[in-house]
Amino acid sequence: MDLTDIRTVRFLMEKHGFSFSGALGQNFLINPHVCPKIAELGSTSPENTGVLEIGAGIGVLTKELALRYKKVIVLEIDKGLKPILDETLAGFDNVEIIYADIMAINLKELITAGFEGLDAVCCANLPYYITSPVIMRLLDEDLPLKSITVMVQKEAADRITALPGTRECGAISIAIRYYGTPEKLFGVGRGKFMPSPNVDSTVIRIIVDKKYNLNEIDKIRFFRIVKSVFSQRRKQIINPLSVEFHISKDKARDILEKCGISSRARAEELSLDKFIALNEAIGGNL
To answer: At the topology level of CATH, where does 216-283 sit?
Structure first.
């Protein structure tokens, strides 16, 4: 069964009375080359790896993952897809589908128990409307994931992979790089989906290398700094910092100077190491 063939997709939908949900951002891939490529790039040793997929659709990517990986666990929020997935994934005994919301389930327990003795990665075609919350949840909860390989909206990929110190850099760029190293893998045009979205997509990979390991208090303060300065990115960072931490501008200026940061600098001008240094300096002055 060719799950990327439009006639097959329509047949399955009609057979099981399924219709697309705009609210869930459902767009099914109808290009035969994309999902095999995502699956191949998800891990260099799939035979020793378990993969978490978020959103199965009709099982196009799931099937490719199941052909390569030791075990696949899928989180699918739409129970209306169950009869279709029962048919399209029949015969794959290494696939477990859990009908649940990724934002509500205990991910650490799921991954630890489900992939015992295996490395764990995530591969998914993420709904655009929930891209950032899902990625940040995967990164922020200290999950045993080696990497995250996901398809996202092109503009989101540009922000996620933007280098610190560039105009494209934003709060999400810094947040992602605190936990890992993101990179763009390849683009996917809007015409490769059914129904076709109004935007193009990009497949990205985040290697979860956890170079920085702040304690919980320091990490909370670090993200307060990042969020506050990027929420007013056109202003010099001395202004949002003084407001956020209830310190005078003179005090904020002294802290910035000790970190080698100009008091006239704006958020996108700072490297990640400068943000780390600024966090330490502010913590020592509160």
So the answer is: Helicase, Ruva Protein; domain 3 (1.10.8)
